[in-house]
Structures are given as structure tokens and as C-alpha cells.
Amino acid sequence: KVPLVIDTDTAQDDCIALLVGLLDPRADLRAITMVAGNVGFDQQIRNAFLTLNVAGRLGEVPVHLGCRRPLVRPWESAENVHGDGVGGMTMDMTNCEPDPEHAVDTLIRLAAESPGELTIVCIGPLTNIATATIKDPTFVDNVKALYVMGGSNNARGNITAAAEFNFYVDPEAAKAVFAAGFNITLIPWAPLTLEHAVFGPDQLAEIEALNTPLSRFFTRVCAATLDFDRSVGINGTTHPDSLTAAVLLHPELVTCTGDYHVDVETQGELTRGYSAMSWGVHGLVSNATVVEEVDANAFYDYLGRTLAGRQGQR
Ligand code: BDR
Ligand code: CA
């Protein structure tokens, strides 16, 4: 099993990534850590517990609350994209208490408990991870790997022309994390997600037809973003976060990678959060493996099996 933590700004595809971590028999999900990002922080907490509940794992995996704003900048949300992030679902929150340990301390503790074994799936802004490196100088060496969703390797953004949301919201944290010396696998927004992790109308209809509690959850959660996606020319739902969790657990999904030096723009008037990915530039050595292509059909099949409840026994 793969020991992991998912660091998340829980809304829409973050919920699906959590399902992957909670239900895949290969995953040993030790904690969910929360970071400011997509929607209001308290809503993100509710969304995480809703996901634990539908996965049947409430009370089994702790939810730890982390940084409530980026390192330097005011928090900016993506509520125009995600709404509340779960299509208006609610539940009784009795017995849904977050763990009192701060997420940054959780990340540091879990990494130190088994040095070189823990992987962190980072699917929100990188504020918690950057803060952990500041608080504990041994954190970088104790972590086996980061699987980071963020950036683009063709400068196509989704919150500005140049920037992807996670890196845009906390560019200082993203820059610090790529400079820190982690073993990083990067799952970018474009072109990877747009070309290999969009589920079109036929696929969404297939998932809906599964008619399991998990598939109904998926359909409800993803419906919130469909209208937005269509308004920006994407004919389907986008799954960068669940892809990130999936490629960690199933590396055979990955069909092409490249080693790049990744840095993040923090200053630009039009380019804040832009991920500069260099290859063959003198003096810039690789600090990340960037996933460039995946087997899109295999990823869709994998998620379909998960939502059908056919992932085997944990
Ligand atoms: C990222 O931002 C959120 O909308 C998604 O969850 C993903 O982590 C994509 O830019
Ligand atoms: Ca996210």
C-alpha cells in the first residue's frame, strides 16, 4: 500500500480525488489536510466530511485544518466556478469534528514518523507544504514525494491567461516548494488535463447510469462546474485532482513524462502564478517530473470502476 496524505481545497474534483484515496485498495490514506483555495474554508471542511461519508469512511481518516490564507496575498476563491463545490448537498455534521492538530503539524509528524515513505498529494494551493518546510527543516528529506496538481506547461491558464488556479492563489508558496528540493511529480492543467482528463457528455451519461451512491455523488458534485466549463469552451468536466491521485496509485496510467526545471512567477502584472518550465537551459537543473500524457481511456475506466464500487476490498 502507498502511505499518503491528501492536501486539498475540497470542492468538486478534490472530492473525487478524496474518493480515490479513500477507496482504492492500494491507498493507505493517513490524513486529509485542508488548505485555503477553491471555496470558503468552512464549506471545504463540510465537503470533505460529505466525501468521507459517501465513501463509508467517516471517523476512519482524520481531517486536519491548515492555513486559512496564502503566505503573502489575500485569499481569492473560485466560487464562480465551483459554487459550494458539492452541488448544494448537505448532511448532519454531528460527529464531524476536525482533528485538533494543525495540518502543518500533521504533515510534519506523519513524514517524520516514517522517513522516506510518505507521499503527499497536493491538489490545492501549496501554502501548507511551504509552511511545513519553514517550520521543520527536516520535512523535505522526510517526505518521499509530492504529487502536485498545478501550473501549465504551455502557459495556458484557467484563472488568468497565464496562470492555473492553485499556483495563482499562492504563487510564493508554489515557488518556495519547487525550490525546496522535494521529489516532485507535477500534473499540470494544460495541456494534460484539457487533453486527457475531460469527461465528455457520453462519459458523464455512462457514469450517471451506474446509479450507485458514489456515481450519484459524482454527478451532483460535477454538475456545479459543467455550466462554467461550457462557458469557457470545455465540453465536459475536468479531473486534474483525481488524475493526480490516480497516477500516484497507478503509475501505469502515465504514458509520457518530461524532466523540467519548474519555477513560479510571483511578480508579473499579467503573469502572476505562471509556471516557467525549462528544459535544456544552462544552469537550470530538473526539479520536477512533469506528466505530459496519460492513457485517458484507462483513467476514465479506473474512475468508473471506483464509482461503480468495483475497486475490490480495501
Ligand atoms: C485546480 O483548481 C481547482 O479548481 C481544482 O480542484 C484543481 O486543483 C485546477 O486549476
Ligand atoms: Ca483542488
Automatic annotation (TrEMBL):
- One Pfam family named in its UniProt record: IU_nuc_hydro
Q: Which residue range or ranges hold the Inosine/uridine-preferring nucleoside hydrolase domain?
A: 4-301
> Listed GO molecular functions?
hydrolase activity, hydrolyzing N-glycosyl compounds
Q: Does the keyword Chaperone apply?
A: no
Q: Does the keyword Hydrolase apply?
A: yes
Q: Which InterPro entries match?
A: Inosine/uridine_hydrolase_dom (IPR001910), IUN_hydrolase (IPR052775), Ribo_hydro-like (IPR036452)
Keywords associated with the record: Hydrolase
Q: Which residues form a coiled coil?
A: none
Descriptive protein name: Nucleoside hydrolase
